[in-house]
Amino acid sequence: MRTVYLDHAATTPVHPKVLEAMLPYFSGKFGNPSNLHDIGREAKNAVEEARAKTAALVGATPVEIYFTSSGAESNNFALKGLAQANSQKGKHIIVSQIEHFSILHPAKTLEKSGFTVTYLPTDKEGLVNPDDVAKAITKDTILVSIMHANNEIGTIEPIEAISKITRGKGVLFHTDAVATTGWIPVNVEALGVDALSFSGHQFYGPKGAAALFVRKGVRIKPQIEGGIQEDGRRAGTENVPALVGLGKAAELATAEVGNRMKYTSQLRDKLQKGLQDRIEDMVINGHPVNRLPHNLNVSFWYVEGESMLLFLNMEGISVSSGSACTSRSLKSSHVLTCIGTDAAVANGTLLMTLGMGNSAEDIDYVIEKLPPIVQRLREMSPLYEDMMKKKKAAAR
Amino acid sequence: MEQYSSKVMDHFAHPHNVGEIENADGVGTVGNPVCGDVMRLYIKVENKIITDAKFKTFGCGAAIATSSMVTDLVKGKSIDEALKISNAAVAEALGGLPKVKMHCSVLAEEALKSALDDYYKKKGVASPVKMPAESGHEHDMGE
């Protein structure tokens, strides 16, 4: 059976060149970068080389890159660290309602320790309006955090327009670029941000290696204390092989990002059209143009997401569902709720994210397999039955 | 999330008794599309025996599997026996359900009780059916 992995927003496989670069650092070159002897220096050099490559991917200088263990850690570090280090200037923070939980939950935590947080809505395509940011800024505002692109619906936010506003008002601006880095150009100068999170396993690097860019001169409070690593900002012995892998993945992404955009967007468009031609009553979520090239988020009326996911899995196709039923809380996606997706159809959502390992044949296979699954589940659905009866009654 | 048992996967992939019963003696629809599952259960009753049961369900794997199982369980039972079928019995017959999916078995019990309630109402008889009070849904923040 063919296997088609369409869940690259969950994670990507480690690129063979990345793995090759990592392997010497598990046992041969096993040193601790904090040690002054040759074995330690060898590891230190590898980490600093990785830092330079990682910085280059986002147009930063190496001293502005702090390595972390995950995108979630980078986001926690940014939100809490920037808020706490700058709290003497004010205690107000602005985020959007569609941020990842690794921004929203730290925001809630900060609220409990005396900060106030404004949660900005988006339009129905998931865009934050820069004017809303401008209006929300008060004398007390110290930090704005708006994601570069949303990880579920793929909408790319107007970061440049927002940074013009924050710079004009002297407010720090962090962006969560975990969903974008490696897939579209990410440049901290062009974006005009003061801090930016990204994670290696999102772009063919290993899990456990991520980074936070913090612009030179911006104060940030460490969240993990007790060591000199990362210039004293993040204690803990470096995960050397993973960081070497992150560096290699960053180097590959810097060279290939244009290709990746072209290749995945063309396959994504083919998938979208193929499904639209064959399935009625479906909704494409997110912005029609300003969207991640490899993202397709689609809701199907009258069917539930997890059922589709399980049937697709039986056909060797891996996707994610945005349904209430796969989540612990039984609530549908906060992102779909924010953009105003009808709660009934939100539960029939599939998130498909493509990658460089997908072929045109893979997409043909999905276009062949998904429509009958949707139809089969619709024939089992009381909501579909009700709709069909209404249709018949109206036709009479 | 915990994995589904092989029995749940079997009932999900090959559900029994999918469909409608025309002129059913009892029909019950429970759940809410917003919460992610809606079950509709049809029963045919002859001489106080449930001779046929069918279902239509909008929902996750567990919702479809519990619908399939509850229709299997009620077929051939008297209406009094059917009233005693609990959500725990449905879950147990499926080899257990992941904790977060237990509400699907509650929904299956509710759908059956709702169909039986409808049967009594259609007969013009006072219904002895008590709907379960607790649906098992928790709405807290988080993933």
Write the layout of secondary structure elements.
The complex is a heterodimer of chains A (396) and B (143).
Chain A: E1 4-5, H1 16-22, H2 38-57, E2 65-68, H3 71-85, E3 92-96, H4 101-112, E4 116-120, H5 130-136, E5 141-145, H6 159-169, E6 172-176, H7 188-191, E7 195-199, E8 210-214, H8 240-278, E9 282-285, E10 295-300, H9 305-314, E11 317-318, E12 320-321, H10 334-338, H11 343-346, E13 349-353, H12 360-379, H13 382-395
Parallel strand pairs in A: 1-11, 3-4, 3-5, 5-6, 6-7
Antiparallel strand pairs in A: 2-8, 7-8, 9-10, 10-13, 12-13
Chain B: H1 6-13, E1 26-32, E2 37-46, E3 49-58, H2 61-74, H3 79-83, H4 87-93, H5 102-123
Antiparallel strand pairs in B: 1-2, 2-3
Helix pairs in contact in B: 1-2, 2-5, 4-5
Protein described:
The complex is a heterodimer of chains A (396) and B (143). With 396 residues, chain A is an alpha/beta fold. Chain A has helices at 16-22, 38-57, 71-85, 101-112, 130-136, 159-169, 188-191, 240-278, 305-314, 334-338, 343-346, 360-379, 382-395; strands spanning 4-5, 65-68, 92-96, 116-120, 141-145, 172-176, 195-199, 210-214, 282-285, 295-300, 317-318, 320-321, 349-353. In chain A, the strands form 3 sheets. Chain A has a 7-stranded mixed beta sheet with strand order 2-8-7-6-5-3-4, with helices on both faces. Chain A has a 4-stranded antiparallel beta sheet with strand order 9-10-13-12, with helices on one face. Chain A has a two-stranded parallel sheet with strand order 1-11. In chain A, helix 1 (16-22) runs antiparallel to helix 8 (240-278), helix 3 (71-85) runs parallel beside helix 4 and helix 9 (305-314) packs across helix 12. The longest helix of chain A is centred in the middle third of the chain and has 39 residues, at 240-278. Chain A starts with a strand and ends with a helix. The mean pLDDT of chain A is 96. Chain B has one domain (6-121): Sufe protein. Chain: A, CATH 3.90.1010. In chain B, 39% of the residues lie in helices and 19% in strands. Chain B has a 3-stranded antiparallel beta sheet. Chain B contains 5 helices and 3 strands. Chain B is globular and about 45 Å long. In chain B, helix 1 (6-13) packs across helix 2. Chain A binds chain B through residues 101, 105, 302-307, 310-311, 314, 323-332, 343-344, 347, 379-385, and chain B through 1, 9, 12-13, 15, 18, 20, 29, 33-40, 56-64, 100-101, 103, 137-143.
